[in-house]
């Protein structure tokens, strides 16, 4: 009787075999892999949504700014030449004057962190707005002056670039066509980018590159807004 009890006790305490442990480990690993993949995908989609939201918000902010200025401007829009010699790539390419505001902008140039940069260098990236003080205008306030303007304001966010910034008058009317395009992301994430020259073949129509199996789409977004505005001040 006792020997049988001893044998049964030994048999009931038998653990998992190595094969059983390997199978359990494999199943657990597959579950962890699937869960990790799902979490990564969710994170990518979330970041992509945040990137697109920031880009669209910046586009709306620029459009609202230029729309307000055009609506309450009592003078025609004036497009001027570069603030500094165009041979120097560190300075603005174009200057646009509308009412009490002056915009320094460079289409296709990405805006980076402002820390450690001079005012001229800040004006060569993105879209910088200057508000001209009362009593002055674009014609009477020199482009390099600071006494007749408020502090410059960068209208684009980090890693954004202008694709389009156009304000054109509709013939025989007081209405204006306004078109704003903004892209977020490094140049190699956009179509038509030449890494050697750092330029685009067609920056206005550049779009985010779609690469299957890669998450670069989470770091790129584009937006374009077009509207017609009529001046309210004659």
Write the layout of secondary structure elements.
Blueprint: H1 2-12, H2 18-71, E1 78-80, E2 94-98, E3 101-105, H3 119-123, E4 127-131, E5 153-154, E6 160-169, E7 175-184, E8 193-194, E9 199-200, E10 221-230
Antiparallel strand pairs: 1-2, 2-3, 3-4, 4-5, 6-7, 7-10, 8-9
Structural overview:
There is one protein chain. The N and C termini lie far apart (114 Å). Helix content is 30%, strand content 23%. The strands form three sheets. The chain has a five-stranded antiparallel sheet. A three-stranded antiparallel sheet has the order 6-7-10, covered by helices on one side. It has a two-stranded antiparallel ribbon with strand order 8-9. Strand 2 (94-98) and strand 3 (101-105) form a beta hairpin. It has 234 residues and is of the alpha+beta class. The chain has helices at 2-12, 18-71, 119-123; strands at residues 78-80, 94-98, 101-105, 127-131, 153-154, 160-169, 175-184, 193-194, 199-200, 221-230.
General shape:
elongated
The end-to-end distance, rounded to whole angstroms, is: 114 Å
Number of individual domains: 1
User: Per DSSP, what share of the residues sits in E-state strands of 2 or more residues?
Assistant: 15-25%
Mean pLDDT across every amino acid position = 79
Largest sheet: 5 strands, antiparallel
How many beta strands in the DSSP annotation?
10
- Runs in which pLDDT lies below 50 for 5 or more consecutive residues are 84-88
Give the radius of gyration: 29 Å
Q: Structural class from helices and strands?
A: alpha+beta
Secondary-structure element order, N to C: HHEEEHEEEEEEE
The helix count comes to 3
The strand order across the widest sheet is: 1-2-3-4-5
Helical content band: 25-40%
